[in-house]
Amino acid sequence: MLEDPTFWALVGLIIFFAIMIYLKVPKTVTGGLDKRAERITTELDQARKLREEAQALLAEYQRKAREAESEAEEIIDQATREAEALGAEARARMEEYVASRTKLAEDKIAQAEAQAIQEVKALSADVAIAAAERILTAKAKGATADALVDAAIGDVKGKLH
Question: Could you say which of 36, 41, 94, 145 would form a disulfide bridge with 140 (CB–CB 3.0 to 4.6 Å)?
Fold first, then answer.
C-alpha cells in the first residue's frame, strides 16, 4: 500500500484539502463569491431604480409635451378668434367710414344743387326785372311810369325771394 501511487495520490489530496481548510480557502472563496453576488444584487437594484426614474422622467416629459401642445393649440385658437374679431371690426369701421363719406358727398351734392337752384332763381329774377324795366320804360313815360316800374320791381323781388 505504501508503494501504491494511488494511495499517495489520495494522501496528497487529503493533505491538500486539509491545508485548504486550515488556511480557510473555502471561506475566502465563498466570501468573495458572496461579496460579488451582493455587488451584483446592488447593481441590479440600482439599475432597476434608475430604470424606474427614467420611466418617471419620460412620463413627466410626455405629460409636459402634451400640456405644451394643448397650450399651443389654445393660443392658436385664441389668436384666430382675435384675428377674426379684429377683421370683423375693421370691416365694420371701413363700412362706417365709406357710409359716412358717401353721406357727406351726398350732402355736399344736395347743398350744391340747392345753391345752384338759388342762383338760377336769383339770376332769372334779375333778368325778369331788367326785362320788365325795359318794357315798362319803353311804354310808360314820366313820373307815373317811374312809380309803376319801381312798384313792379319791388313786387317781383318780393315774390321771387
Answer: 145
Positive or negative, the CA dihedral 76, 81, 85, 88 is positive
Is 150 within 8 Å of 133 (Cβ atoms)?
no
- pTM of the predicted structure, to 2 decimals: 0.42
Residues 6+ apart with CB under 8 A from 145: 136, 137, 139
Task: Give domain status of residue 3, yes or no.
Answer: no
And the C-alpha cell for 21? 481548510
Only one residue has cell 389654445, namely 74
| Consecutive H or E run containing 31 | helix 25-139
| Identity of the residue numbered 75 | I
The answer to whether residue 28 is domain-embedded is yes
N residues, the chain: 161
Domain of 71 in residue numbering reads as 24-160
Distance of alpha carbon 158 from alpha carbon 79, whole angstroms = 69
Enter the C-alpha cell of residue 156: 317781383
Average pLDDT over residues 126-144: 72
pLDDT 10s digits, 27-66: 888 888 889 999 999 999 999 999 999 999 999 999 999 9
In the chain, the number of structural domains is 1
